[in-house]
Specification:
Elements (H helix, E strand, L loop, with lengths): L2 E9 L4 E9 L2 E7 L2 E8 L4 H11 L11 E5 L8 E6 L47 H13 L2 H6 L3 E6 L5 E7 L2 H15 L7 E4 L5 H9 L4 E4 L5 H10 L2 E7 L2 E6 L5 H6 L1
Parallel strand pairs: 3-6, 9-10, 10-11
Antiparallel strand pairs: 1-2, 1-12, 3-4, 5-6, 7-8, 7-9, 11-12
């Protein structure tokens, strides 16, 4: 089962209702080779053996694609860590991809994938304070404003966008990139370079939301995160834990709030 149900609040132009959504489960898998941590990948649980086998081949970790290493799965007791895969591979079967675990191609697409150990994926800190309210109409206007700056997407249809806004709706930073996480890193970087990070209240993104986007938002101390597409299960879990108001499926004046709805005016006045 790769879907888990989460309660949310669906906001439409003229109505607010409680609902339950099935969200894709996102959890960590640590791969260790010959008793040494090699890399961590975030994935939807299931078919882990196939995932590992494909990664060993595509990343050049094995010299011989016909070689089948011994794989055993460990279920750690630590909360939030699903499993560790222990691989036993003779040194003469290891390819160039084994020389540096940080060289995995997955590093460019995921802020967690490519880390060496599960302990590297933790994020802790005080919850962000709930000290303001914003309306869903303001969020919709932010998406429209970001769209005006998506010049590369207009030409190619192949880029993601991210934008950071003040509470008044002023756009503080906007960027496009082929990678979702890169676009978020860029807008946060611009914010820091321009020294206006204290005004940042909303992060708007064009894609889906996974664990690492939540962590980036939290580290930038931005309390509201809104996305065009779906969140993962782990994204919702961490948004609740870290004090982030998470809004997803923000399309056509509709959106669903999965955590900390106290910041959304429509919800507070309707429920």
């Amino acid at each position: 089962m790769v879907v888990r149900n989460y309660d949310g609040i669906k906001i439409k132009s003229n109505s607010v209702e409680r609902m339950s959504d099935g969200l894709t489960i996102e959890e960590a898998l640590q791969i260790s080779i010959n008793k040494k941590p090699f890399t961590v990948t975030m994935r939807a649980p299931g078919e882990d053996l196939s995932l590992i086998r494909g990664l060993l081949h595509t990343e050049g970790i094995l010299k011989n694609r016909a070689y089948l290493p011994d794989v055993s799965f460990i279920e750690p007791e630590k909360e939030g860590i699903v499993r560790i895969a222990e691989l036993t591979i003779p040194e003469n079967e290891l390819g160039d991809g084994y020389l540096n675990s940080r060289s995995l191609l997955s590093v460019s697409s995921c802020g967690i994938c490519g880390k060496t150990e599960l302990n590297d994926t933790t994020c802790t800190g005080h919850q962000l304070p709930i000290d303001f309210e914003i309306s869903s109409n303001q969020i919709n206007e932010m998406f429209l404003e970001m769209k005006k700056h998506q010049k590369a997407f207009e030409k190619s249809g192949g880029t993601h966008a991210a934008a950071i806004f003040s509470l008044s709706g002023q756009i503080l930073s906007v960027s496009e990139d082929i990678g979702r996480h890169n676009a978020v890193d860029k807008v946060i970087g611009k914010l820091l370079l321009n020294s206006n990070w204290k005004e940042a209240k909303c992060l708007i993104v064009s894609g889906r939301i996974s664990y690492e986007i939540i962590v980036k938002c939290f580290k930038a101390k931005i309390p509201v995160l809104a996305a065009v597409s779906a969140p993962s299960s782990l994204a919702v879990d961490f948004a609740k834990e870290l004090g982030i108001t998470l809004l997803a499926f923000c399309r056509e004046e509709r959106m669903t709030c999965y955590s900390h709805p106290q910041r959304i005016k429509n919800i507070n006045s309707s429920l």
